[in-house]
Amino acid sequence: MKLKNALTSAAIFLSASAVQAEDSAIVLGKSAYGAFCAVCHGEDGKGGGQVGELFQVKPPSLTKLSERAGGRFPFPDVYHVIILGMEAPGHGTSEMPVWGDYFMADALEDRGVSKTDALYIASGRALSLVYYLESIQD
After folding, report:
1. Which of 40, 73, 111, 120 is a Cys-bridge partner for 59, taking CB atoms 3.0 to 4.6 Å apart?
2. Any stretches that span the bilayer, and where are they (predicted)?
């Protein structure tokens, strides 16, 4: 009976930790979005950022990613665009920065951070952005 109670308690704790970790990722992603993305895509993610208004091709609404992907949030595609940038074949280059390079360089500036650790940090920052974008879908 004690083992069953211990396993139940552990399961409840782990479930709560997973939800809390997901919530934390969204909070971190929202912060990163405000710092890096909002200037082009707007505070609300609908494409009306101050700098974005200056572009020949306006940044799209990031609240419609699921809708444009047939109703399911395109998690791996969004992560790919954040990490590697975006080139649209036949439509020219994108104005969007390659955030993976920026996140790597930023992490490497910290003393004692190895390239491997910097890669994990950059990946985590991009993942938190993707989780946040998933949370703001209309």
Report:
1. 40
2. none
What is the extent of the structural domain holding 39? 2-135
**Domains of the chain: total:** 1
Long-range contacts of 85-93 (CB under 8 A, 24+ apart): none
66-105: pLDDT as tens digits: 999 999 999 999 998 898 887 644 434 567 788 888 998 9
**Phi and psi angles of residue 61, each rounded to the nearest 5 degrees, phi first:** -70, 130
Q: How far out from the chain centre does Cα 133 lie? A: 6
Q: Please state the pTM of the whole predicted model.
A: 0.78
Q: And the tokens for 26? A: 């969204």
Residue of 112 and 119 predicted with greater confidence: 119
Cα 93 from chain centroid? Answer: 21
